[in-house]
Design brief:
This protein is of the alpha/beta class. Helix content is 36%, strand content 16%.
Amino acid sequence: MKALAINGSPRKKWNTAMLLEQALAGAESVGAEAEIVHLYDFDYSGCTSCFACKKLGGKSYGLCAVKDGITPILRRAAEVDVLILGSPIYFGTETGMMRSFMERLLFPFVTYTPGYASIFPGKLRSALVHTMNISEEALAPTGQDRRIELTRSFMTRTFGNCEALLCYDTFQFPDYSKYVSSVWDAEAKARRRAEVFPKDLQRAFEMGVGMAEAARV
């Protein structure tokens, strides 16, 4: 069994990456072979609208025809048993690198047929991990809940399932005094990091366990 986490954050050792690592640790604890990929290590583009993945009889039908840095990652992502995409929220949605990756990953499997049926040939368990500065209480008033649900629906349509782990009110800087960030209460942020984030990491671990166990069924 294989588990793959895709880190859409530019930071490899901070909130999103830490949650992904814990999810993989959970999957590993029940026998999965785990790997994390950091998207900011690669040179690639989003969908180029060539539509080769939609051309009947074409050699790339159902596959992304663009060849660049993430081509082998797209192939691996479609072959694993557990796939977890992680990204901080920038301006209301995933990072540009993650959005570009998702375009390339999902679009080839979604058909222009009634209901936009998926032709994904495999069977995997999928999940989204999102980190964000806003509080849980601010999620609905800002419309962020609808954006996340939309992304989750795209994943579900493609793979048949998708769960989401949301981490709120994250700790951005080790030292808030070095940055213009007076909108945040630095002490409250540090306190939440110490008291709540460990629970988020545990939730990620448990999610990884659950996904790997479900993938066996």
